[in-house]
Amino acid sequence: MKLFSGPPLSQFSDSPARKEDTDAGHVPQAKARAANKTASKPEQKVRGEVIMPEVPQQRLRITPIPRLASGGRWRVEAMRSLSEPLLLWFTRGQGRITVGGVTRGYGAHNAVFIPAGVMHGFDVGNQTFGSAVFFGKCAHVLPAEAHHLRIRDVAPQGELSVLIDNIQRELTGARPGHERAADNYVGLLSVWLERQIELMANDARKPGAALRLARRYTALIEDDFRSGKTVAHFARDLGVTTTHLTRVCNQTCGRSASDLLHDRVIFEARKMLSESTLPIGQVAQQLGFASAAYFTRAFQHRTGKTPSAFRRHG
């Protein structure tokens, strides 16, 4: 299921946008790219505001999966990455999840581990339940790659649910040593992951060329989505044609290469508009757009709202 669809952003002409959605800070693309070099720093002060990217909260926490979408479904459905490892434990419901450019269906008793910096997005329906474990700054050994584990046996299903419940109880409790106890349960959780990954390894096939290319492409997007690069630029970096890259993305996740790229950029735009007071022209600049007018048209095409309207109403 495509979460967002539409023609590539390059089709829009650079005609003037409405006055409310533009900013005097229109800059050429070269300046926009220069500004992007500083955007990757954890903190950058602009008019008293801390601008993205997101900084890890550096603490362990557990959140019910439905609550992740409480600020808008785009917060879970759009392509984005986190600066900390994440474990999604689905206990009820079904949908589709895209991790590293590969889309799979998920259902009850699916555990999806996503390392920091890996691009992902997933459906959340009314019947989707489970827990999201954000590891923060974790001292325990966690997998270096993403894993989608379908836990069919009752015993490991119960083990994981109990571990997550115990972590949550210690995090919300005030008994002596509760932080140390929570950390010890996280250590057991890391062992649970290691064992389940080992069990699944015998059944898993080695990723084919298409999967490897899709993962490399999404990794490049995550590293450089603020640069203003097009799909053609990324295809050249990967040593393939744009047509081949698009065909592979459609094969692995049912979405075009441009849709993945634009989804990631617009997610970041929504995040910056909703979580900072940075002028729209500077949001456009930091995301690699040649002008605020071009950014406004692209944003409205994919969200149905202008940046100013989205900022006002969310």
Written account of the structure:
- This protein is globular.
- It has 2 domains: 9-51 and 209-313, Arc Repressor Mutant, subunit A (Orthogonal Bundle), CATH 1.10.10.60; 61-201, Regulatory protein AraC (Jelly Rolls, Sandwich), CATH 2.60.120.280.
- It has 314 residues and is of the alpha+beta class.
- The protein has helices at residues 29-39, 74-77, 154-172, 178-201, 209-224, 231-238, 242-253, 257-275, 280-286, 292-303, 307-313, and strands at 45-46, 49-50, 61-64, 86-92, 95-99, 102-106, 110-114, 120-122, 129-134, 147-150.
- The chain is built from 11 helices and 10 strands.
- Helix 5 (209-224) crosses helix 7 (242-253) and helix 9 crosses helix 10 (292-303).
- The strands form 3 sheets. Strands 3-9-4-7-10 form a 5-stranded antiparallel β-sheet, with helices on one face. It has a 3-stranded antiparallel β-sheet with strand order 6-5-8. Strands 1-2 form a two-stranded antiparallel sheet.
- The longest helix has 24 residues, at 178-201.
